[in-house]
Design goal:
The protein is α/β, with parallel strands linked by helices and 496 residues long. Helix content is 32%, strand content 20%.
Amino acid sequence: MKILVQKGKLQDNKSQAIILAMFQDQKKLTGTSLSVDQASHGLISGFLKNDDFSGKPSQIAVIYTCGAIPAQRIALVGLGKKSEVNAERVRAAFSKVMQYLRNINVKKAVTYLDFNLLPREKNKIVQAMVEGVLLGLYQYTPYKTVGREDIREMEQLNIVADESKYSSVSAEVKEVQTIVDAVCLARDLVSTPANEMTPSILAFKAKEIARRNNVTCKIIDRAGMKKLGMNSLLGVAAGSKEEPKFIILEYKGGKKDKAPVVLVGKGLTFDSGGISLKPAEKMDEMKSDMAGGAAVMATIIAAADLRLPINLVSLIPATENMPGGLALKPGDILKSYCGKTIEVINTDAEGRLILADALSYASIYKPAAVIDIATLTGACVIALGDDLIGMLGKDEKLKAQIKKAAKSTGEEVWELPLWDNYSELIKSDIADYKNTGGRVAGTITGALFLSKFVGDYPWVHLDIAGPAWSGKDKPYIPKGASGVAVRLLVEYLRNT
């Protein structure tokens, strides 16, 4: 969908729908809302007198103009009480009103950029509006054939801006669209069924990303991994006929001597649990176990398209976890890339096994920071629910930067303690470590396991098991893949 910025007056716009956001405690019409009301001979004020619209968060009402103004409709959307409005409210409101208009077959709409909609965060209004619109309208439909002609799409939203703000708003809209395009790509990658998104296909997608300026791609195959000693990754891959791939994407936008940020994303294109087989219920959703890998691939796209002045590396260990005749077995011992040995207690704790090799490999870049993103533990969902990202790490500065980016983007993180005493739970009697410490403190012990394979560089682990896949529609996240962490990571990188 196109988003265009234009000059002029909202009430003069010939559109299928004008969108006006209003506060719940708004006692009278002001500014552009008042101008539209006056031009339409009191259509809005007359409608409001009937108390059919109170302005509660994401409440929607549509007024048909019947020729009173050039636009066919006036769509009102509520933001709630002015004192409570934040960027998330704006994202949700514009998502919901655009979804509503799409459902009544509106193709083009127009709204006005009012900085007073976010009185305490005026600098975020453009970002919040555009993200809400584009993320909320996302649909994944490539495999729909029956009734395909009934799928409705919005084509265009025009944003009317004051002449003095036109250039800056246009530039910001373009930037936000770039980031949202990356989020939607991540959603597409995660939504694609596992038979159409194998490690080899994911590697091919990475090569396509490398067509961008200053981006390169290297793929390490099974033979290369064996030569490097990535036996932990190869152990997980052993049960699948699909070839594993270790994907390396590099973006060089900073000075040659500037240490890169390294992102590591879990790339399980399908996770059956292996010999420790998962229950059948919801196993279909395990195509989403590569959401971390999709996020770091999408982030490097956004960094390149935004031409960020940084150096960035994305590492994606990609494989399936299947219960084949050669599959990893409980009780097996693996020697990892860095030489440390791992006793496999549960083959369904496979994400940390492939990340162990990737995190160790990250040290060759002598990175400024390393961030890994993974749908790592069901325990994180139990602890934090479906909306929060679990964050663990020991570098206070890096954690603070991630928290700041999370707050700005609405992709909230909640820190859990990386408590060394719990390392006893992952000590093995016959190897260096066990790949699981059991049900107790599962998210913490999972992160502690990863920490054993991280060198002496700043590191943060983000567990996205909860928000990576949504079982229901959320305000600007339709049911399914969310593309979580892409906006958070881009915001962090923009501020480094």
